[in-house]
Amino acid sequence: MTTNLQAYRGSLLHFLADPAFSDESHPSHAWHEDGLLIVADGKVQAAGDYATLHATLPPNTVVHDYSGKLLMPGFIDTHVHYPQTDMIASPAEGLLPWLETYTFPTERQFEDTAHAANVAEFFLDELLRCGTTTAMVYCTVHPQSVDAFFTASEQRGLRMVAGKVMMDRNCPDFLRDTAESGARDTETLIQRWHKRGRALYAITPRFAPTSTERQLQLAGELAAAYPDTFIQTHVSENEAECAWVRELFPNSRSYIDVYDSYGMMRPRAMYGHCIWLNERDRQRMAETQSAAAICPTSNLFLGSGLFDFERADDAGVLLSLATDVGGGTSFSMLQTMNEAYKVARLKGSYLPALRMFYLATLGAARSMQLEGTIGNFAVGAEADFIVVDPQATPLLQRRTARGESLEELLFALALLGDDRAIAATYSAGRQVHVRETT
């Protein structure tokens, strides 16, 4: 029996396919300038033209009127570190010294459960304020950091993916587990949290240099034993890091081949960065349905390099956008689109706004093998959505008033928007953020 029916009026946008590979016979998106989103029991019941759907509502149904604003699926951030919230915008000469100087000391504090809980609450507030309703989240080596995160997200009813970092070498003693303890703690956490409510677990070796071959072997065995879990790690972010991997794993064909040799390339595997890949690496990603989390603000901040959209598309790699806070410099997926656009231009390609919004919604859901659950307004999908305000700032208001197409409207939002453009955020049909107005 349907209960808790809700209806929302506004301009509706959601995606059906990747705009880069669509045509008139297979449209990439649905756009209803005067639309209606109907939600029942936390799931999408219908989405379409207001004039058509309004007549189907039961008498006396309250319609929440967001006319003049855009309703779209919530953003999905496929690579972010919640423990690094307090060290965002920390200066360093590169990735490896940044880890030593800021990251590891900051993560040490998460042995304190109360501290972890406090940061988790602030982190989730920031995500929701920026319109992000799902994220793939790195915790720390401490199991209690995972418990704190999932407890906070469960209380808010959010669809979140997270995992304990596995790290048994090339790191400070105070952050080091062992191959066996890391696997044991991970399995305990999988059994405690995976598919509990809206929580999903990600097996999380930090990156190949901080795991012994034994730890990677055990991580791969867990991935095989629990095939519906996620895997998340880093690959080919930085040239110095890639050189280090060649020294540590001289028998591997490439950095990503290290993970492949331990059975860690499969659907629901999310690889952060993927900058310095070769053609065979990209081919293996496509063959195994492993996905790339593109982190433009982090890559520019740390000087790591520029993601090659064109070659990734040629290979058929699953793509998504990610903030990578705290190497990333903003929780906002709009700001992330801004930098992704510039990265693409510097590599000689072009990212239309429609493609950027796809990568932050349905593209991410597809990368995570969660299409039909999150990422668009398909009937039965979880009703995670945001209300985007094209008039959020004087400059946005002035620019969007002169827009002559959906592409121009979205491009202005991506290049000029930030958290202020998110008027409200809904998770499973429940409002979890509303923008404060003065």
UniProtKB/TrEMBL annotation:
Binds 1 zinc ion per subunit. It comes from the Bacteria. Residues 71-432 form the Amidohydrolase-related domain. Coiled coil: none annotated. Pfam families: Amidohydro_1. Its EC number is 3.5.4.3. SUPFAM superfamilies: Composite domain of metallo-dependent hydrolases, Metallo-dependent hydrolases. InterPro entries: Amidohydro-rel (IPR006680), Guanine_deaminase (IPR014311), Metal-dep_hydrolase_composite (IPR011059), Metal_Hydrolase (IPR032466), Metallo-dep_hydrolases (IPR051607). The keyword Zinc applies. Keywords: Hydrolase, Metal-binding, Zinc. Its cofactor is Zn(2+). It is an enzyme of class 3 (hydrolase). It catalyses: guanine + H2O + H(+) = xanthine + NH4(+). GO terms for molecular function: guanine deaminase activity. Catalyzes the hydrolytic deamination of guanine, producing xanthine and ammonia. PANTHER family: GUANINE DEAMINASE. This is Guanine deaminase. The lineage of its organism: Bacteria, Pseudomonadati, Pseudomonadota, Betaproteobacteria, Burkholderiales.
